[in-house]
Amino acid sequence: MFKDYNMNQLVLPLDVEIKLQENDIAFSIHQLVESIPSEAFAPFLQQTGCPAYHPRMMLKLILCGYTQSAFSGRRIEDLTKDSLRMMWLAQGYQPSYRTINRFRVHPLTKELLRQCFVQFRCQLVKEDLIAQEAIFIDGTKIEANANKFTFVWKRSIEKYEASLVEKSNQLYEELLQQQIIPAIEQEVETQLSITELKQVAEKLEEVVADYTERIEQSEEAQERKQLRSERKTPKQQWKQVNEWITRKQKYEQDFAIFGKRNSYAKAGTLYRQRKVDIEPVFGCLKANLGFTHFSVLGQSKVENEIGFALMAVNLRKYGRKRKFSANFSTHTSKNRNHLMRFRFFVWTRTIYVPASSYD
Description:
Radius of gyration: 29 Å
Number of helices: 14
Strand order of the largest sheet: 1-5-4
Strand content: 5-15%
Order of helices and strands: HHHHHHHEEHHHEHHHHEE
Mean pLDDT: 79
Structural class: mainly alpha
Low-confidence stretches: 144-148, 273-279, 329-341, 347-359
Largest sheet: 3 strands, antiparallel
């Protein structure tokens, strides 16, 4: 016997809130954003143009999206169409990814995030979840597409260095033949050292500077155009030599680390132990939430995005705490010690720092 299942039967839609679980994270997000004073949203109000989405709704949607590890505007837009909690928070609205991205990097959003951290901290203090006097300052690095456990192979470095030596020698011979730079006294005839490459870069920089000066002094458009065309090649060569210098320095560091080994990992045992012991909060940000790189450019925009990411970590921990509190009794000291060990991010003096919890 099967339960009744009929796709042709008309079903009246119910309020989405009824379908959410009692301690769903959407309620925590809603409660947090609603606790922000209305005065904080006043700068967003405009008297002209098409009515905008309410900043409270946009803030809730982005926070909820980040708690679900959805960091792109398109992904958050998709969630407003198929996620129950996002449908409820949006109340049927479906803002486009462009609107979501614009709000995320808006300069005024930074103040809303600050208010989020202030209200969240007040809520934690009220519920006796953190110690007001215990604040620990720590930091971490979040890079673009960073892989901390990539292996570096000695054979590959040797191959890349040989290619660099061949290209640098070829360029040096061409510069000598074209009389662009004078000859440089080499320590080793087979390759140019870092010091010698820096000398080549300095000579090329002088050539580029000479062309630039002639262009500025010239009053004829045709002559300036010709000089810019002639300057293009030495300028590209100068940039290329500077890149080779950086790469050659890195290769020397790699060979020093190799020693007698054939490979090494970028993240050693010490770094992995530090990540576990000293950086559990940032470890949650990267490993659990999956936030490993930024999707925006510019310091102010990055500050907004890291604010959303850190608050998302807070909300996930707070939501987990509420679920534990609903399943276990907190009257006994045994259960209390089990439930109340959490570390949250707070925003102090425009800096994000983790605040310690206590029993």
